[in-house]
Amino acid sequence: MAAQRDLDVVLWGATGFTGELATAYLAGDSSSFYSFKLSHAAAPPNLKWAICGRNKAKLEKLKAAHSVSEDVEVIVADASDAVSIDKFVSRTKVVCALAGPFVRYSDLVVEACARHGTHYVDICGEPQWVHSCIDRYQDRARATGACIVNMCGYDSIPSDLGTLAAVQALRSKLMNPAAPVRRVTHYTFPFGGFSGGSLQTVVSQITHPVTLAPGVDPESPFLLGGIPAGGERDEDAFLTKSSFDTTVGLWRAPFGMEKINARVVRKSAGCLNYGAAFNFQELSLVPDEKSAKKHEKTALHPTPPEVVQKMIDAGRLPKPGMGPTPELRAKTRFLSVLVAEADGSDVTSTVAISGGEAGYEDTAKMVVEAALALVLNNASCPGFSCGGFQTPAMCLGNALIHRLQHAGTAGITAVWCTPYLCVSKEGSTRGEFYACAVPAVLHGQRLCDCKDVVHPCSVLWPRVSLSLFPRMQLLSNGKSMSRHRHQVHPL
User: Fold this and answer.
1) What is the pLDDT of residues 277-296, one digit of tens each?
2) Contact call for residues 408 and 401 (beta carbons, < 8 A)
3) pLDDT in tens, 317-372
4) Residue 471 C-alpha from the chain's centroid
5) Is the separation of the CB atoms in 236 and 219 below 8 Å?
6) What 3-state class would DSSP assign to 193?
7) What does the CA dihedral 169, 403, 488, 342 come to, rounded to 10 degrees?
8) Which of 470, 16, 463, 420 is nearest to 246 (CA)?
9) Partners of 148 in the beta sheet?
10) Rg (CA), the chain
11) Which letter does DSSP use for residue 318 in this model?
12) What's the rounded Cα separation, in Å, for the pair 438 and 201?
């Protein structure tokens, strides 16, 4: 990267649904967030940032709507105009990309970042496009030192950083920093709402298909890397069937974003040496068989892209720039519980992460914090000096975990809950699961009395029995409840 850049961060695609939230998050406009309380601007006073898009009038309107400082520059650039893209990419340290479908609107931006040595983070959920970018731009990005970090939103921060935290917790428990990990299972809970931009990503499978190199399987669970030495195994296949999980006492069902998140985690596992036999599984937990079968049907028979487009045209699904209503976002939360299992023993560790509305509000927060980590905390980012295409765990690691923890404990409640490590003493795996999940739900959110909240608590709470973890001590925000078999600590 050139020594002198007059901008720290440029928000590319700022006028889109998530781009507007990212702008509000940096500027500190709390009125834009309904699932968590924003107490201050994410941008420190000395941060030099800009908003960028193709329509100057919309950018100026966005700036006024969120009381963005006059010092924040408005940059006009079009996704098809390489010259205008080159101009802003060469001026900034980090591009925070929010313009999807990324195959249509961000390909030239990634190329320019790789060429100019500019770091890049995005919220894409397009693994085939990412693979194509790696084939075309990896060598150049490594040569210039540009860190290209895709999937920094709900796809795939909780999965990737949650797995990293679970692996670190397990190795700490085993007192062996290199202990091989056999498996991490990521239990997710349903959340609601899609934006027009996300739906256009589905449609782009037809309108802008990605061409991969001959011999590359676009459906491979290891499309981004991390394949075991012995090759792909049956257990690595994406989940398509539902079943009852006796470990946690709930139904497990296919999770719609496993095909994105699992590929990211598997690349991290291969590069960060989680274990030669490591396996990652991601699934939804639902309260009954009927819900599980519904998820199964969706996984086996997804809605064809052409049908999605017809539904958009008919007004049955949101158009680009539209997304979940404030009412729905106010009622929606997410919860992730990740269980790591040691290879060769029955030792486990459990990490839980919870937050606000995942698809857009928390996604905006996560990707902005990723961009800020590359600007403000790059000395602590493990992959910063390597450049090239990396996962969030590879490039940002604990630096981003700590930023998200700080954001969640600095007066911003219910955005990113501090990951919890459950240290088990003579307790069951189910006890560990609930010992972590319940405080993660409760942490700073004050939601249990809100009967209209679409929240993981509605799935978990009927199943919770104190007999599962008698005498557990929960440590959260300085408060404790006296029970002693399990201890739950913020990581």
Assistant:
1) 999 999 998 878 998 898 89
2) no
3) 767 667 788 988 888 888 888 889 999 999 888 888 888 888 899 999 999 999 99
4) 34
5) no
6) coil
7) -20
8) 463
9) 120, 389
10) 21
11) P
12) 34
